[in-house]
């Protein structure tokens, strides 16, 4: 069966520090991968998605970047965090045209 | 323009009653999928139900059903016999078959009252 791992679960980082959030998927190959951000009490904003290794699409301009160094690994990064980067970050994967997205447990990031 | 609109920020329902959560969508793609997710306070996203744009029947999954009105571009979630454990945020989402993105609405917070 397929599983998705996302870590860390919580993170407190100072303004200006770098960020690296990692997401891996097991049990499937060539998944579509997604990074979403959810501000407190708000909906999910799609940040990046990837349909293959090295293929990254950005939905909104921002202080963040994403990379997919391996088929089932998706990394969200920042060189210098801003206060506005605080939020709940969710990684997800999907496969096929009419299947749902499966989400990781999320990372609560607080930038102080 | 918003792809997914959920106009009910918060809803209350009595335990054992049914409740309808509204969702409208906007797309020019003839092929798309509609999804509902539940997000409890823990933050995990739990998939509930799926409706394809060409499906003739409304989708059902246990106590969940999707009231799909294609001409109105609406995909409302109906929860029957509400339980206290149904208290959570509910998100409507759409995926157009020409793309790979899932677009989510702003969510509806459902509170089940005992």
Overview of this structure, please?
With 112 residues, chain A is an all-beta fold. Helix content of chain A is 0%, strand content 57%. Chain A has no helices and eleven strands. Chain A has strands at 3-7, 10-13, 19-26, 32-38, 44-52, 55-58, 65-70, 73-78, 87-94, 102-103, 107-111. In chain A, a hairpin with a 7-residue loop joins strand 9 (87-94) and strand 10. The mean pLDDT of chain A is 92. Chain B has 114 residues and is mainly β. Helices cover 0% and strands 52% of the residues of chain B. Chain B has no helices and twelve strands. Chain B has strands at residues 4-5, 10-14, 19-21, 24-25, 32-39, 46-52, 60-61, 64-69, 74-79, 88-96, 102-104, 108-113. In chain B, strands 2, 5, 6, 10, 11 and 12 form a six-stranded mixed β-sheet that branches. A four-stranded antiparallel β-sheet of chain B has the order 3-9-8-7, with no helix packed on it. A two-stranded antiparallel ribbon of chain B has the order 1-4. Chain A binds chain B through residues 32, 34, 36, 42-44, 46, 49, 51, 59, 88, 90, 92, 94, 97-103, 105-106, 108, and chain B through 6, 31, 33, 35, 43-45, 47, 50, 52, 91, 93, 95, 97, 100-107.
